[in-house]
Amino acid sequence: MTPDLLLALSLFAAATVFSPGPNNLMLMTSGANFGLRRTLPHLAGVAYGFPLMILPVGLGVMQVFEIWPFANTLLKVISVVYLLWLAWKIANQAAPGETGSNARPLSFLQAAAFQWVNPKAWSMALGAITLYAASRDLVAVAWVSGTYAVIGTASAVTWTVLGTGLRRWLDHPGRLRLFNWSMAAILLAAMVPVLFG
Fold this sequence. Notes:
By secondary structure, this protein is mainly α. It has one domain (3-196). The chain contains seven helices and no strands. The chain has helices at residues 3-18, 22-67, 70-91, 108-114, 119-132, 138-165, 173-196. Helix 1 (3-18) packs parallel to helix 6 (138-165), helix 2 (22-67) packs across helix 4 (108-114) and helix 2 packs parallel to helix 7. The chain is globular.
């Protein structure tokens, strides 16, 4: 990959991973509710789950959508159902330490698996592969994946730290509830252009 193409890919990756979307909103919410240390597995699942998704997508999975267009519709339906469930879970999340609270952040595997039903992740992966690894050979796809691993880590840390910065202000149950409901609503709103645009 030439330096110019790598720079363009890096800027594309930064624009796509730093913008608000399900991963970033969930990381900020997790940081606010659980702190940085407890959110680290979730953070790693986002930061490395997406680059790991890029590899099979770039090496052949994206052809499924070209051969069977209904697969894209099926993915959207699964994504909407899952995102509705996540938004409900975020909105109704009890504060850690509340009596009877089973609240806990997503695990590494849960966050990594979420990439496969995240419409924004699919859009990002398909766009990056189409623009920067059109040949779909292993080296080109690996460059895209590696670039996303580096920039995605910076984004995941940034969004989680933003959430942890809100922890003190969200110490009041009413403000935490309002924050969680707001994050759930924004999560759903962020999906509208990806799903229907």
